[in-house]
Design brief:
By secondary structure, the chain is mainly α. Helices cover 90% and strands 0% of the residues. It is built from 3 helices and no strands. Keywords: Coiled coil.
Length: 188
Amino acid sequence: MLVDGRTKFTMEEMCCMDGAVGETCSKMSQQQETNNEFKNEFKEMEKKLLQQDKELCSKNALIEELNRKLSRLQTANDSFSQKNSILKERLLQKEHQRLLPQNILQARQDLEKARDLQEEMLETRWKVIERKEQIEQERWCALEKHKEKLLQLQQKLEEQEQTLKKEKEQKKKNKRFGRLKKWFRAIF
């Protein structure tokens, strides 16, 4: 325990006690500051990723809504197909019975309307599918970008840790060399 009640030395106190060169201490403190900056950047990136994750969740909700609409459109399309086949049967029955030309014309008009409605439903369905694919594509692109950024930050942190380890080892070597030097001076 130290005189002032602390149990640990600061880095500057250790440098002064070891007799190490002041540049090494300042480099280590600078390295520590840059390491702290990288950690802060990493935390900020983590916050951004959480925000973008929330955005992706909202996009997922939008995709689910689009899927529900697509299901409803499919049901409506099936209903129109069924009505279309019924109208075809009626038209054939009316033609076979040689009904009045006005009734046949009405049945044909109904059939054309059903076909138009079916085409509109199919177009709407394709638009929904295209929008869904576009949202999925954007989501994957965003995830890939974040993955690359995280890998870059991780590499920077690993490099910083390696340089700190090297500097600590160099400091230990300098300390040993200083002691040997003092010992040799004392002997000779």
